[in-house]
Amino acid sequence: MLLDQPNHLAEEIEKIEIKLLLEGIYQRYGYDFRNYAFSSIRRRIWYRAQIEEVHSISEFQAKVLYDSDLMRKLLSDFSINVTEMFRDPGFFKVFRLKVVPILRELPYIRIWHAGCSSGEEAYSMAIVLHEEGLYEKAQIYATDMDEKIIERAKQGKITLDHMKLYTKNYQKAGGTKEFSEYYSVTDNYVTLKPFLKKNLIFAHHNLVTDHSFNEFHMIVCRNVLIYFNKQLTNRVYDLFYDSLSDGGFLGLGSKESINMYKSSSTYEEIDTVERLYKKVK
């Protein structure tokens, strides 16, 4: 019995408190984190609760529901803002080799970077399309649920100390020019060249609650679904399926697989290592 196991009882009560907090956030602010992976969301809640010097989730819930500024901080904590330019270079190299030849035959190209964080991978895609002579007929949509990080992405500014790694990534990804051609340096920052923003739209979109907003020839959503539970993961896969054109491509992260999708047979595997798939039904 739970009453005979204090540690288990405390864990059960904590789960109840977290469920109530997430339900309260949904009812009060409209953000739905109820189907995020529990261990991940628990860690982020306690991180902010400790900063706020509260000692229980119930106490924290009361503060969050009455304090919209605190909610904004918690929303930022919930956002997954880990990214870099040409992250996992092999993915972009495979994109050049296996997807670009097909996109080249299209009259126009629409690509969606879902969960784009601060935009580095979307800018990387713009560079690849530019080098392949496709950027002029392309439109890249880069979305995230965190409006603050979207505003940062629009600036196209990156700290200078990242550029050594980003240059190596670019070269491994099959870059054909000097990477320095794509940015200018000011003090401790680099600013990406304005032409990379020409056909790149940053916008707010929540994968959990929002719907499809266009039809795309490729969707890139890498290292986001690992934070969702199975129910939510399938919902997002449904969203991607509905958003892809026939024969469209889906790019996932290295720890994600279309095999988790209840309708995985609707996709053909294009590259096993780089988790690249093609919609076939």
UniProtKB/TrEMBL annotation:
GO BP terms in the entry: methylation
This protein's record includes keyword Transferase: yes
Signal peptide location: none
A molecular-function term among this protein's GO annotations: methyltransferase activity
Record has Methyltransferase as a keyword: yes
Alphabetical list of InterPro entries matching this protein: Bact_Chemotaxis_MeTrfase, CheR_C, CheR_MeTrfase, CheR_N, SAM-dependent_MTases_sf
Domain CheR-type methyltransferase intervals: 25-258
Gene3D superfamilies hit by this protein: Vaccinia Virus protein VP39
Keywords: Methyltransferase, Transferase
Pfam families, A to Z: CheR, CheR_N
Protein's UniProt name: CheR family methyltransferase
